[in-house]
Each structure stands twice: as structure tokens, then as C-alpha cells.
Amino acid sequence: MAIRTTSPVTGEVLKSFDELTADQLEDKLARAATAAESYRLTTVDQRAEWLGRAADHLEKEADSVSELITTEMGKTYRAAQEEVAKSVHGLRFYAAEGPAYLKDLPADASRVGAKKTYVTYQPIGPVLAVMPWNLPLWQAMRFAAPALTAGNVGLLKHASNVPQTALYMEQLFRDAGFPDDVFQTLLISSGRVEQVLRDERVKAATLTGSEPAGKSVGTIAGSEIKRVVLELGGSDPFIVMPSTNLERATDVAVLARTLNNGQSCINGKRFFVHADIYDAFVASFAAKMGALVVGDPMDESTDVGPLATESGRGDVAAYVDDALGKGAKALVGGKRPEGAGWFYPPTVLTDITPDMNMYHEEVFGPVAQVFRVTSLQQALELANGHPYGLGSNLWSEDEAERQMFIRDVESGMAFINGHTTSYPEIPFGGVKRSGYGRELSDLGMKEFMNAKTVWIGPDAPA
Prior knowledge:
By secondary structure, this protein is an alpha/beta fold. Helix content is 40%, strand content 19%. It folds into two domains: 4-232 and 434-454, Aldehyde Dehydrogenase, Chain A, domain 1 (3-Layer(aba) Sandwich); 236-416, Aldehyde Dehydrogenase, Chain A, domain 2, CATH 3.40.309.
């Protein structure tokens, strides 16, 4: 795939970039290895200071960075501003909490015959991050902030359609005072990821992307005995029970399905609604989805912008056409619009059956599948029948239902009376084919650290 910025609004190529040559890539890897040797010796307080400066720089440049994100991948300018603000918060969070996260963990020395024993956390070196286009700044930042706090060096292989955001991140950390080569962007094709990951100077990898990409990177990392964190697809269930506030649930259902123009792994995608409130929910949900304004993402009145890529829009349309051809009903949307750009309308589908392709896959666009259920048990059985297990949502005021949901839903995250989202304060990640490992919080930072056990024996007799 060519490395270039292409407007999702018009389809026009705005800027192209040359891929790194073999010599240029080798130079970057060599410099990353050299930087790792000195950067690991810096104090966590010094790293925190640089992170704080990066947050300040990003905050000052928020308007231009937001416009860049919108230009490259088509999310609304308002959503891009929120992404920048979230990235600023992530930087400041690790600047504040990183020193405490990295303190040695003491153990009971007397139980192991020692004078002193503890676990100390140490960086492992250069880490490769293979990142997606849908949250081009935040997704990469939630790797970069904890990795740099830990004393690791970052190598960012970003999606080929957001190269300017990727290059901006490298410049941001340099301007903030981080030593040269501690964070580098690699403008390379996906076909060269294996070469980088197999390089002995690269110690680990993290990937957010498709299931096929995760299988490939996981296989390579396993063969090299290198750590990897995989955050892959999601088809999150959104379960609505009779005890909930229906107006609030439908409002959030619209947000959960159309957030980021419907292009997020943690969007609510499958809506399981109890029969007692099904008709009322569907009527309200469809009306609110149909009222959303689709258009220029830079326009303040726009609710949903274009999809990021032409192929992505084609995939969404194919899923919907297949479902409609097999008996699904579109309460709103369901037709690819004419004209320039990669737009697709908010769509609500019912009567979804297992013979439809979307039943088993992830639809990466503003398309909601709504199912009628007669109990929470049935909703959970349907939710858990999907191969993905990233996030999940329950809308209920019943404590027994909440506890059953937390216990039985097969997902890495369970949100009650709110849509799934990411916070630097809490772990993020999935189970089943949604991947393994965790991002964010202290767990995400320690995924790429050596938890070194230290045992110090008793003093020798005088």
C-alpha cells in the first residue's frame, strides 16, 4: 500500500511519501539500539519531565493536529479535538503516575531465607508498534507514553494512510527534549514488518489491527521468542434490559455505534434488546440514528464523516448488501450514497441471521445489528457466540443482572450503563480472537519490562 495522505472526503491524494530504503531502515534500527543503551539509564523522573513537556507542546498545537487527523482519516474535527485532548491527558497521566508504577515491589525476605528480596522493573529495549489509522494519535500515544516512561525505545510503524500524524509524533517527542532516536517513525510497508520484528535489536512488538495481521505478528514473535501484545478486532455486544433508563440507553447506543464514524474496535456493534422494551428501543434508536448529519468532517454541524478508506467503505457496503439480500431489514440507512468521498450513512438492521456474513464478522462502519432477546441469559449466549471478546456493555439497574454479566460475558472489559472506552488509568485489552496482553495502566507499561527478582542473602558472620 502506498504511503500517502488521501482525503476521505474527495478521494484526492494530498501528499505522498517515499518508503525507507534498506540502508535507511538499517540506520534507524542501529540508532534505536544505541539510544536504548543510554536511555535506559535515565531516571524515571527525567522521563516524566519530558512527557510533561510533550503534553504541553501537544496542547498548544491541538488545533493544527486535530485538523491533520481529520484530513488524513476523516473523523469529525470535534472528534479529532477530543482525541488530541485524550492524548494530552495520557501523557500527563504517565508523567504523574509513572514514578510510582516503577517502584520496586518488596517481598517477604524472611520466607525465602534472604536479608532482602524484591522485584525491580527494567526496560527491555526497542519495541516495535504496528498501529492502525482509526485513532492515529491516541492509539500510538497509548503505546508511546507508557513505553517511554518505562525507559524503552519506540519504533512506530503506522498505517500507510496516516503518515503525517506518524511523523508528527516523532517530532513531538524530539521537541519535548527526549534524546534523539528514542522514538522514531518507520515509513515502511506492512510487508517489511517481519524483517524488523526478526531483527535481534528489536525486543518486542505491539499491534493493534486486524485478526490476520495479529496472527502474522504473533507467529513471528513466537518463533523469535519475543513478547507481543495484540489488540485485534471487536464486535462488542450492547445488552439492554427492561430496568434501564431507555432514553439514556438509546442516546449512548447511537454514540457507541457511530463514534469515530463507526470505525473503532470497541464500538457497540451488536445490540441485544429485551423483548419487553424492544419496540420502544428500536423506534427511538432508529430515529436518532436517522437524524444524524453526514457530511464534511470539518463542518461543526456534521455528526458522521466519511469512512477512512475506499476499500473500507466497500467492505461495509458488501456486508449490508449481503444481509439485505438474505432477509435483513434496514430501518434506516443501508444504501451507499452517490458522489465523491467514502461516506456511508448510519444504518440500523434487524432480522439478522447466522447465514449473513456480518453475523460472524466485524463491520467497521456505522452499521448496527439489533436482536430481540427474552432474557439476559439468551443475550449472553448470543454475545459469547462471536469469536471476538474485546469490550461489552450492559444496561441494567438490577444488581443480580450486573453480577451475572460481569461473571459470564466473555470479554476483556465489561462496562455497565456506559459505552466501552479507553482510559490510561485502567487496563485495556481482549480475550478470544480479540487478542491478548493489556495496554494502559501499570499493566500495559509492564508488558514490556523485565520483572527482575532480586534476592540478597544474609550478612556473612563477622
